[in-house]
Write a structure and sequence with these properties.
Helices cover 18% and strands 35% of the residues. It is an alpha+beta fold. The chain has three domains: 88 residues, Pseudouridine synthase; 138 residues, Pseudouridine synthase, CATH 3.30.2350; 67 residues, PUA domain (Archaeosine Trna-guanine Transglycosylase, Chain: A, domain 4). The longest helix is centred in the N-terminal third of the chain and has 12 residues. It is elongated and about 75 Å long. 34% of the residues are buried.
Length: 306
């Protein structure tokens, strides 16, 4: 059994907890995820089942879309609502000030990862060092905020801690908690991420995600899995003739004569997906020049040897 599982992670579980749950339900050891989601956060967690784990590098690079809430005037040591409050002050912010800050934090920039993260420093996870009360230098990393939209503004006159509901589309490696904290510092009042929901990872959306309860009750788990090709929409599609399947399973070259249809003529070194007409992914292959016509060289095969 192999495929991609679009799952809705509930708050309170780690991404590893969810992977272990799916391993038990599917009775498969070969299960992984395509990008962690904080324990306190909810939303889309894309799981790779069986040979789909070999597609991890293609899914982790997909854009993410989040919906969250920022609370201004309160700083925490984790940059989110789970941490210890470091400072709290009443704030008088306007919606236009927040919108101006959002515009400032849209585009390409660098971001310093938080200490409470799964990144490693000299072989040890940063969150492990944070639990020990240690803080180490973290080099800034390039990110891109492609869209940062203010959905609702709550003034909160009584507490003096305005809140905003926002939606953000960003590149991989972007930390929403750090984005919230950085916006708070830019506005001079501090802030933390008080709520987070991941609503999409590439083409996989929360509206289409399976709940843990639905997975536990399902008597045919294979029907929950999406085809491997669903993760590779940006790669050119090459449909091969039926007689090519056994050759591809054994990693053999595919010449143009074995191709039934292709979306566009390949370029030298281009990565493509070799498929059957019914969208069954056979392999990823590289087009190489050579001989009278050139050929597709399979580099990742998703079929068993025949």
């Amino acid at each position: 059994m192999q495929g991609i599982l679009n799952l809705l992670k509930p708050p309170g579980m780690t991404s590893h907890d969810v992977v272990e749950f799916v391993r038990k339900q599917f009775r498969l050891r070969r299960v992984g995820h395509a990008g962690t989601l904080d324990p306190a956060a909810a939303g889309v967690l894309v799981l790779l089942v069986g040979k789909a784990t070999r597609l991890n590098e293609y899914l982790t690079g997909m854009d993410k879309v989040y919906r969250g809430e920022i609370t201004f005037g309160v700083r925490t040591d984790t940059q989110d609502a789970t941490g210890k409050v470091l400072s709290s002050q009443k704030v008088d912010l306007t919606q236009s000030q927040v919108e101006q800050a959002f515009a400032r934090f849209t585009g390409r920039m660098t971001q310093i990862p938080p200490m409470v993260s799964a990144l490693k420093h000299r072989g040890k996870r940063l969150y492990q060092l944070a639990r020990e009360g240690r803080e180490v230098s973290r080099p800034p990393r390039p990110i891109e905020i492609k869209r940062l939209e203010l959905l609702e503004f709550y003034r909160d006159k009584e507490e003096g801690h305005p809140r905003v509901l926002f939606e953000c589309q960003c590149s991989k490696g972007t930390y929403m908690r750090t984005l919230a904290a950085d916006i708070g510092e830019y506005l001079g009042c501090g802030a933390h991420l008080s709520y987070l929901l991941r609503i999409a990872v590439g083409p996989y959306e929360a509206n289409d995600a399976w709940l843990l309860e639905e997975i536990a009750k399902c008597d045919d788990l294979s029907r929950l899995l999406l085809p491997l090709s669903s993760a590779l929409g940006e790669l050119p599609r090459v449909v091969v003739r039926p007689e090519m399947v056994s050759l591809i399973a054994n990693g053999k070259r595919v010449y143009p004569g074995g191709v039934e249809n292709m979306s566009a003529p390949p370029k030298p070194g281009q990565l493509v997906r070799l498929e059957q007409p019914e969208n069954r992914l056979l392999a990823l292959a590289i087009w190489r020049e050579g001989g009278p016509s050139g050929y597709f060289h399979p580099c990742k095969v998703f079929l068993d040897h025949e």
